[in-house]
Specification:
single chain, alpha/beta, Rossmann fold, five-stranded parallel β-sheet, 5 helices, 5 strands, globular
């Protein structure tokens, strides 16, 4: 796993409805120094998106009980403050159509579950680093 000091203080919004998966992901993220805000359904996630400051990144499951992660991603991208927030889609589905649609909707990464703790930390660190570089170039 990566060291906590590379990500200390960064906040991740994790939208994952499967309790066991959510607990494992949250444990790995916290172990790597991230603050985790967890939502287990689309309606709650929408509420968070409209009321909270954007986090440093979003981990978004594609399959949610009340909507799809792709619909939630489309909604997230309509919110002005959230347009540049890096989003990694989480799914057990490896269909190319979902990957392509996620990219067209503005996903920055597509992580297939199950994911190892090391791979999750590495991908998230890269996502955050790449996002920071893009924002720095624009500023």
């Amino acid at each position: 796993m990566t060291s906590a000091d590379t990500s200390s203080g960064l906040t991740i919004l994790m939208v994952e409805n499967e309790e066991v998966t959510a607990c494992l992901l949250e444990f790995v993220l916290q172990k790597n120094g991230y603050r985790v805000i967890h939502s287990n359904n689309g309606e709650h996630a929408k509420s968070l998106i409209t009321t909270m400051e954007p986090p440093d990144a979003v981990l978004l499951d594609i399959f949610l009980p009340d909507t799809t992660g792709l619909d939630l991603l489309a909604y997230l991208r309509t919110q002005e403050q959230w347009k540049k927030t890096p989003v990694a889609m989480l799914t057990a589905n490896t269909e190319n159509l979902d990957t392509r649609k996620a990219a067209l909707l503005g996903a920055n990464d597509y992580i297939v579950k199950p994911v190892s703790p090391t791979q999750l930390a590495t991908r998230l660190n890269r996502l955050l680093r790449d996002s920071h570089k893009k924002q720095t170039r624009v500023a």
